[in-house]
Amino acid sequence: MARSIKLLILLMICASSGFWLKALLAEGHGIVFNGGEGPGQGKHIVLVSGDQEYRSEEGLPQLGKILSTHHGFLCTVLFPIDPKSGEIDPNQTSNIPGLEALDSADLMIVALRFLDLPDEQMKHFVDYLEAGNPVIGLRTSTHAFDLKRSQTYSKYNWTNKDKSYENGFGRQVLGETWIRHHGDHGTQSTRGLLAGVQRHHPILRGIKDGDIWGPTDVYAVALPLPENCTPLVMGQVVNGMAFHDAPVEGPKNNPMIPVAWTNSYQSASGKVARVFTTTMGAATDLEAEGTRRMIVNAAYWAAGLEGQIADRSNVTTVGTFQPTCFGHNAFVKGKKPSDYAK
């Protein structure tokens, strides 16, 4: 209780001066990367990790470092935290402290899966979303919420049957919910091919066919995507787990499934938000320069800065980046947020 009161006081004091993020650091619940020089200076990106399989707790800090160091964005990275140990626990689906950061965010990047957050945490997410702010959703974010403990925000559930908000956050905001694996999980990887006339879209600047790759498999989506969605990258199913492996022959690649697209979401406020979704984005997918460039370019586009996307955005990794392979319960135990700030 005393610790919670301390945090509240810190937040109240810091918020009034615009530096409340220091309170987040003081509690050790997240990481803040101060923006350097670059087009993103003055913009705040909040990256929220919360999946149990694809090591977003490793991938999102690296994205935060790239976006802050090379592009000037202030980046806050949040994690699922074991409330007893203070350690990162991707299997902890009901506690992502620090979501207050969304109250001052210009862009939210999420890598979530089957979360059951309490109302007081969901409220910040929903308030951000329904104010019409931009979103980037990675991999399992198509099935971000499975809220069981409270029904206040149940419409965001991936299984929502209400026709007014069918399949929740995934379908309504990102453009799709979870359906199934299309490629063979763990044996077939994904190569990104640019989608026809969209190859000149700002998000694809500096990217050519084959630059985008990841060892995660292609997810199925219902075709066609909703009318507001524009496919940018098609996922070629690759017969192997290496960058240069050959594509699978036969119906899996005919037709190819979109693995990245834009969407527009009209919020409760009536404002239309920019949304970018990719069913790629595992930490190991970020080892490919083209995959990193797609997401960094998408951050510019979502934040309304597409005119400042370089011909070849700097996506050099910052510090050591050797991501753990995806898998349930394969996360590195005993880590705290500060361990990923280095």
Strand line-up of the largest beta sheet: 1-3-2-4-5-10-9-8-6-7
Can you tell me the overall shape?
globular
- Beta-strand content: 15-25%
The averaged pLDDT comes out at 92
The low-pLDDT segments are 1-20
Number of helices: 6
Please render the helix and strand layout as text.
Blueprint: H1 2-17, H2 21-27, E1 30-33, E2 44-50, H3 56-69, E3 74-78, E4 107-112, H4 119-130, E5 135-138, H5 168-174, E6 189-194, E7 213-214, E8 230-238, E9 257-266, E10 272-278, H6 289-302
Parallel strand pairs: 2-3, 2-4, 4-5, 5-10
Antiparallel strand pairs: 1-3, 6-7, 6-8, 8-9, 9-10
Helix pairs in contact: 1-2
What does this structure look like?
With 342 residues, the protein is of the alpha/beta class. The protein has a single domain (2-340), classed as Class I glutamine amidotransferase (GATase) domain (Rossmann fold), CATH 3.40.50. 20% of the residues lie in helices and 18% in strands. The chain has helices spanning 2-17, 21-27, 56-69, 119-130, 168-174, 289-302; strands at 30-33, 44-50, 74-78, 107-112, 135-138, 189-194, 213-214, 230-238, 257-266, 272-278. Strands 1-3-2-4-5-10-9-8-6-7 form a ten-stranded mixed sheet, sandwiched between helices. The longest helix has 16 residues, at 2-17. It is globular, with a radius of gyration of 19 Å. The two termini are 31 Å apart.
